[in-house]
Amino acid sequence: MVLLHLRGQSETVTADVLGLSLASVRSTARRARRNLFSRLCPDRTAREGHPGDLDP
Q1: Total domains, the chain
Q2: Reported pTM
Q3: CB-count exposure of residue 21 (10 Å: 0-12, 13-18, 19+)
Q4: Higher confidence at residue 9 or residue 54?
Q5: pLDDT for 30-51, tens place per residue?
Q6: What is the dihedral of CA 9, 10, 14, 20, to 10 degrees?
Q7: Is 54 part of any domain?
Q8: Domain span at 22
Q9: Cα(25)–Cα(6) distance, integer angstroms
Q10: In a domain, 19, yes or no
């Protein structure tokens, strides 16, 4: 998340830097966004089908 959002690197560059597949970076970022969203907005999480799916 730091490389993607705070440093502004693309998913492809992040995958290369970390030595991971692009799918792994995307999946991890999606999971992290959902986790963060559910902690920041717990009341909205229960009502939405896919909480925390934010546009990158």
Answers
A1: 1
A2: 0.68
A3: exposed
A4: 9
A5: 999 889 888 888 887 555 555 5
A6: 170
A7: no
A8: 2-42
A9: 15
A10: yes
